[in-house]
Amino acid sequence: MDDKKQPIVIKKVVKHQGHHGGAWKVAYADFVTAMMAFFLLMWLLGSTTPQQRAGLSQFFTNPSAIQGPGGASTSMIKLGGTQDMPTGPTQETSLGGSPRPNQSALAREAARRDLQRLQTLEVKLKDAIDKSQALKPFKDQLLINLTPEGLRIQIIDKENRPMFQQGRAVLMPYADIILKRIGTFLETVPNKISITGSTDAVKFRNGTMSNWLLSAERANAAREALIAGGMPKNRVAQLVGLSDTVLFNKKDPYAAVNRRISIIVLNKKAEATVARADQYAIGGKSAKSAPVSLGAKVAGSHSSGVTSPPAGISSAQTAPTTH
Questions:
Q1: How far is CA 38 from CA 27, 44, 47, 58, in A?
Q2: Is 323:256 a contact under the CB 8 Å cutoff?
Q3: What is the pTM of this model?
Q4: Which stretches make up the OmpA-like domain (predicted)?
Q5: Residues 6+ apart with CB under 8 A from 27
Q6: Inter-axis angle of helices 103-131 and 268-281, to 10 degrees?
Q7: What is the C-alpha separation between 201 and 245, in angstroms, rounded?
Q8: Is the dihedral of CA 179, 181, 186, 187 positive or negative?
Q9: Range of the structural domain that residue 245 is part of
Q10: What does the pLDDT average to over 20-47?
Q11: Which residue in 130, 172, 218, 286 has the most C-beta neighbors within 10 A?
C-alpha cells in the first residue's frame, strides 16, 4: 500500500453578486439632458435681442396669444357661466409678443427727431453763411442758436448798417438778400415759423405811428421777404411786434442791436403752445387761463397779421433819431 496520500483538490466557485439594475443610467441620462438644456438656454440668452426674449416669454406665458386668423379661439372654455378669460393680445403687447411702445415713448422719439432736424438746419445755415460771398460780410449781424422754442435766427442792426430805412418798414437791399436766402432754407422745413420784430427805445413824435406798429410792420416785411425766397405762405404760425419791451442790450435801450428781426423755427411743443394761444384768441376758452406764447413779454402778438399796440401805450414825445 502506497503511503503517499493523494492531494485533495478543493474547487471553490465564487458566485457574483446579484444584478444591480439600470437605474443609474436613467439618472445619468437626466443629468446630461439637464446640462444640455442649460447650455442651450445660455446660448439663447447670449444670441437673442431683448425684443426676441420678450416674444419668447410671451409665447410660453400665453401661447394662444400668437394665434392668427383661423387659429384658436380668443376665449377659454366656459366654466359654469363664469366670465370668459381673454387670451388674445393685450393693449400692451402686439401680435408676436413684442412690446408695443406707449405714448410717452413715442412723444420722446418725436421730440428727439425734431431736435435733430433743427440741429441739422443750424449746421446748414452756419455753413452756408461761411461759404456765401453775399452773406459772409454780414456774419456778425446773424445770430443762430437753439432755444427751448426751437431754432432762433436773429438779424440785428449795426450802428452804420441798419436793416430798414429809418422809421420805416422798408428793407435795405442787403437785409432783403439775407432774408430771401433764409427763406430758401426754410422751404423744405416742415416746422412752423414765428417772426418777431423789435425796435430800440427811441419814440416817435407824432401820434399816428409808434414802435408797436413799426416792429409789427417790420416783422411782416421780413415775412414777405422769406416767402419771396421760397418759404411757403402757410408756414408762418405767428407774427409778433414787441416794440422795445424785449431789449437785446438792456443797459442801453437806444443801442442799434435792439433793432432786430427774430425768426424762430418752432419745435412741436412750441407749435402746440401757439395753436392753443390761437384758440384763446378766438374765444375758444376763457382768456383768464390763457398761456402766454413764447415768453411772458410777447405783447401785441398775433398769429395771422400785423398787430396794434395795446391800449394805454402812448407814443412818446421825443423825435426819433433812428428806428
A1: 17, 10, 14, 20
A2: no
A3: 0.57
A4: 151-269
A5: none
A6: 100
A7: 9
A8: positive
A9: 114-302
A10: 86
A11: 218
